[in-house]
Amino acid sequence: MSFAGTHTALVTPFREGKFDATAFRQLIEDQISAGITGIVPVGTTGESPTLNHSEHSEVIRTAVEAAAGRCIVIAGTGSNATSEAIALTADAERLGADAALLVAPYYNKPGQEGIYRHFRAVAESVGIPIILYSIPGRCGVEIAVDTVVRLAADCPNIRAIKEAGGSVERVNQLRDALPETFEILSGDSLTIPFLSVGAVGVISVASNLIPAEVSTMVRAWLAGNTGEATSLHRRFYPLFKNLFLETNPVPVKFALSLHGGISPEVRLPLCRMSPANEEKLRSTLASCNLLP
Prior knowledge:
Elements (H helix, E strand, L loop, with lengths): L4 E5 L4 E2 L2 E2 L1 H13 L4 E3 L12 H15 L4 E5 L5 H14 L3 E5 L8 H14 L4 E5 L1 H4 L5 H10 L3 E6 L4 H10 L5 E4 L4 H5 L5 E4 L6 H12 L3 H17 L7 H8 L17 H13 L5
Parallel strand pairs: 1-4, 1-10, 4-5, 5-6, 6-7, 7-8, 8-9, 9-10
Antiparallel strand pairs: 2-3
Helix pairs in contact: 1-2, 2-3, 3-4, 4-6, 6-7, 9-10
């Protein structure tokens, strides 16, 4: 299985505190109709830290059922407790997810040997492919290049990494140190710079809102149409940037709510955007012709 392409880090819609499965299914239909490569339920954008285990399973089950084999389903199953990460990943495999995305253990700040053992233990517990997720700004630790190399060599089902450290140089280092079959994925604002040095796709927040445009941008680059891809990147860069005016997924849920169907509701300790930032994001949406 290749992860080249565009995968949407799905929001988890809520309505009066409960998972809104109807809105979630419609969001997935919109993604598939737009030509998305894959969907990522219960990642960071899906507010996984505030979902209980039952809800976590329900969201994955709903995503698998709604996708119905029409796109890749990559379930977020990371935890800072290895036993919990194993349980979540095994549950995702049981529910029919095609792969799992596991963030580096956060808060307890393990060393690189602990990070290696954590991911190896998870990989050995399941058969589905695993995508590592290095985002030191949230986790307080980075999955070092040498650790990624060890995991790629020792765990056949660890196949890719989402690199969210913000460094093109680190992508260069990963690409030089890893087999060509090991894939590197980006986040939104650095998609084109990362693709230019060897990444093959993106796990995107913005594609909740503009799945066709992000998919077209990535496909164009991978097909060698760099001018078209760069033009799309420049057009939507203000959106890529301003979807992080406040903590993700608060801004993207607000943007989606303007089109109806999805509530801007998030769970505490996240809360609604400030009026000033709502107005700034609304202005960005207008400049990108994305207001209804």
